[in-house]
Amino acid sequence: MENEINLRNYAYLGDAVWELYIREKTILMTNNAQNLHKLTTNYVKTSFQCKLLHELESELTEEETDLVRRARNLPIPVGRRNMQSEYRQATAFEALIGWWYLNDKQRLEKILDIIKF
After folding, report:
1. Which residue in 1, 19, 20, 24 is deepest, having the highest Cβ count within 10 Å?
2. What's the pLDDT tens digit per position in 45-54?
3. Catalytic site residue 104?
């Protein structure tokens, strides 16, 4: 299936999967809409995803590491060039989440269980 979907599309899907996962967590943390938004954005922002990817690197298989490497090397949109390194890492993180979601939901669940915040 990996050959049928490009890495940007995995990242696009992974972004949505990750945000839904975070929203499921944050709705249990507060009833205040402003706090809810702040909590959610803290966990879906580029710097947090970059940090998570770094923490997960030791857990990745060879195939997953290769996917991360290739996703990190995707061209960067012009508006994101000021934070190029973080953006590349976050894109790789989202591509990995999207790939797991479509190809190995059990692995995705295992990784999400590892992530603590």
Report:
1. 19
2. 999 999 999 9
3. no
